Amino acid sequence: MKYLRSVRGRMLCIAFVPGGALVLVALVIAFFLVQQADRTRDAGVETANAADRTARAVVALRTQRSEAMSVPGRRSAAYANFTRRIDTAIDGLRDYARHAPDAESAYQQMTAVELLSAAEGMYRSDSLALAGLDDVTRPSFAEAVAGYRTGLARIAPQLTDSGRTAYESLTRSADWTTLTAAEDALAAGRPLPVPESTWRSAAYTVSQQLGFLYTQQNQYAVQLTLDEGRRTLTGALAASAALLLGAALLLVVVRRLVARVPVPVVPIMVPTMRAAIPRPRHAASRRPRAPEPWPMKAVLDDLRRR
């Protein structure tokens, strides 16, 4: 059997092995990065769905709370019951924000959740005021008013530029001034400084603006998560393409360099049958021979002549 051993072939094999390994690494990296991008995108979609479910649940619970608090004698119990259920729903959304795929998305989602919680504080105080304040519910009303105002002031610097602009426009509006004046009077037990219809109109406008702020912030946070997923996917594809291109260029360059090396192909004959191998001369064993008779005969003849 004949085998051809080529130096060029060996050089190509040496180049193809790391090139193939580089291609394999590129495929593995692309697989994991694509998986990460899919998880990020799924997290954004799930957060958006959770925010929508939570907002719908909070709105429904607010309506039920207002209806339950309209029954005399059950105001405190209804307020405590539905407020606790709303807090539980908001806490569930807060858990989604904590498990965001990156720090920036988590920060923006948490800001949206805190904004929803502050808006809920405004609705709490409004529901207490509509049900009628007494010595039992007035402290809860004052606490709710102070809580949502403090929460909004704390969250405002964390909003986006458009969010801060909308918040500043809200706090400088006539409706905000009317609402705060009415709330201060109710908390102190004084008569309303404005007609009730004006107060209710201002409360409705402020609640709508707070809802708009939450929706805007939540959409921004969700979009940020989705954009992060797209960036991760784009980076995965770009990195994989770069690695594959590098491997291809490496193989092409090595192939061209090897083609320029003047190394002939040397055939090597490998015997297929077992042949006798000649032994070196010095290794050949010599048998002892008998002495030749002619030297002795010559000596005897010489002695006789003497």
UniProtKB/TrEMBL annotation:
Basic residues bias (residue ranges): 279-288
Annotated protein name in UniProt: Nitrate/nitrite sensing protein domain-containing protein
Transmembrane segments: 12-34, 233-254
Tagged with keyword Cell cycle: no
Keywords (A to Z) from UniProt: Membrane, Transmembrane, Transmembrane helix
Domain Nitrate/nitrite sensing protein residue range list: 37-210
Residue ranges of the region described as Disordered: 279-306
Keyword Transmembrane: yes
Superkingdom classification of source: Bacteria
